[in-house]
Amino acid sequence: MVSLKHSTNGLLHVAAPQANGQPPTRDAGSTAVIEAHDIAKIYRIGDIEVRALDGVDVTIHRGELTAIMGPSGSGKSTLMNILGCLDQPTRGSYKLDGVDVEKLNDNQLATIRNKKIGFVFQSFNLLRRTSAIDNVEQPLIYAGVAPRERRERAKAALEAVGLGNRLKHHANELSGGQQQRVAIARALVTNPAIILADEPTGNLDSKSGAEIMCLFQRLNEEKGITVIFVTHDPRIAQHTRRVIRIADGKIIGDDPITDPIVACPDKALPDPILEKLEHAAA
Amino acid sequence: MLLRELIKLALNTLAANKTRAFLTMLGISIGVGAVIALMSIGTGVQAYVTQQFASAGANLIGVVPGRIQRGPGGGAFGSQAPLTMADYRAVAANTPNIVDASADFSRPAVFAYANNTSEVNVTGILANFSAIRNWNARLGRTIDEADVTGRSRVVALGQTVVNDLFEPGEDPLDKIVRINNVPFRVIGVMESKGSSFLGDQDAVAFIPLTTAQERLFGQQAQSVNGERIVSTIYVQAANKDVTPAVISSIDALLRERRRIPADEPSDFSALSQDELINTFGAVTGVLTVFLGAIAAISLLVGGIGIMNIMLVSVTERTREIGLRKAIGAKPSAILTQFLTEAVFLSLIGGLVGIGIGLGIAFVVSQVADFQPVVQAGAIVLAVGFSVAVGLFFGIYPARRAARLNPIDALRFE
User: Fold this and answer.
1) Cα-flanking dihedrals φ and ψ of residue B363, to 5°?
2) Residue A29 lies in a domain
3) pLDDT tens by residue, A211-257
4) Which of B20, B319, B323 to mutate to test the interface with A (most CBs of A within 10 A)?
5) Which of A25, A33, B92, B273 is the most exposed place for a label (fewest CB within 10 A)?
6) Residue A225 domain boundaries
């Protein structure tokens, strides 16, 4: 089972320190990949002070499958932006994979995003008129990876999401589900510490949505990848093993899910996604 | 980020918006093409003018009545006390460092032969004209010493007059033409000098100076004192270096002869060929710069076109910029990406513009009398300028892109 401590009173989760170099599996969950303490984000609009986040503590361990859930306006997007190093908190400390993020400048934040975070967005955000493999290569270009290695890694990432047969297809020639797979491959290709998925099924029909959730579950279970969903949808949250509830800029609940929904239709099948895709293409 | 990646990215983006890229580049192409074409035409005109003056004869100094202001906008004005034969003789006898001196007298006249007529200036010359002005007869001979002393009614015609008066293929030699109704025998046809900005240089006819002054124009060729008038005194200086000294000694001599007080300007002008070249060179040089400046304005407008389209592009691609930032693009990478696009637009536009400029120069060389001179410097300048335009007008949109907040950019609809 997942070994995580949680508290509902906003205290810092203290994870038992473990030796580095531990294989990134779920069972090594005591290695904290996200340690955020007393995070606040305060906007000033004229004289009015808006507290988008107000003293949030989050600790997430390597290999966890977590959902940050809350209604719109709850501060979950702000939290995601801060956890994703797209934004910096007004107050508090944030350590991502051992790096103190709150002290970094724009360039250093860009490097952190490039190396440690994979983003998956609701609207995919692929480059149009650009092939799937070129889309997946983009983060590696910014990482300065040589062209040949880039191509190989991008191909491997696309194969991992079941799109090994769609490398040269342009983004606009793919279905929504397939586009989101390309986006997931793009998030995976840099071997990030965490994948941040912002309503990843929001623009998909229920069948494609289930396939995407299945993919995330398999990536988490089989490859031990840390995935954090940001969603308003309780059903998405039910696919994870832990739900952090947020409302009015504060964490109001942090509960394990003992019996998550399994999105993959039959785990016994070697590669149901790929098979389905090939079936659909035939 | 590697240059290769940047160029590939820029080309892909431009290829995705072909019409827009083409139209934007067109602005730069027209600008660069105009700069190159007009600069080469200007330089060609300058070379042509210099060559036209140089063909008038080596180290030639001309003295004419009236004051000619030096520099652009000049011209003869004021009372023109004519130059006389006595002036000519004094100059020829008393000026040091000269090879030779000559004088002419020129007035419009009506030429008639058979049923044809022609109206050109007839010029009375001395026998040394051909040597000083570097102009000989193509057919027959020109005026010689005997013609001058004998006040002969002989004429050497320019090609244009021959064409006016005679049928094609007809031999003009020894034919009798009437000049202001006085019969003259054709003794020669002058070498053709073509026409230029100085007018048709072949619309001439030469007769002995004495004949012109005494037999053809009589009263017109006499000053109030009854002296014989000349239109121009020509002096050939020994070499280029002494030319200014020769001019000043002519100046001093004539001022004294004409009793001009020291504080008054001369009522005549002694100009060397070099001065004429310099004067016209200054005019054509200003013209070249002026044309280039007009062309540069179109380049500027082209550059504004690039800035405009890049700003549109940044707005359109806000989400792309946000995404690139999310996956790890540093602000400098975004800046370079957009700057590369702008520079590529202007550089490709500039290269096309060189082709347009060369094409125009070629067409002009086929149509006009002069050869446009395409200077390598103008091409380098045009390409350099178009890259600079791309950089200058690209930097603002690119900075805007680089400074976008990734969160706002990702949310942008």
Assistant:
1) -60, -45
2) no
3) 999 999 999 998 889 999 999 999 999 999 999 999 999 999 999 99
4) B323
5) A25
6) 63-72+110-281
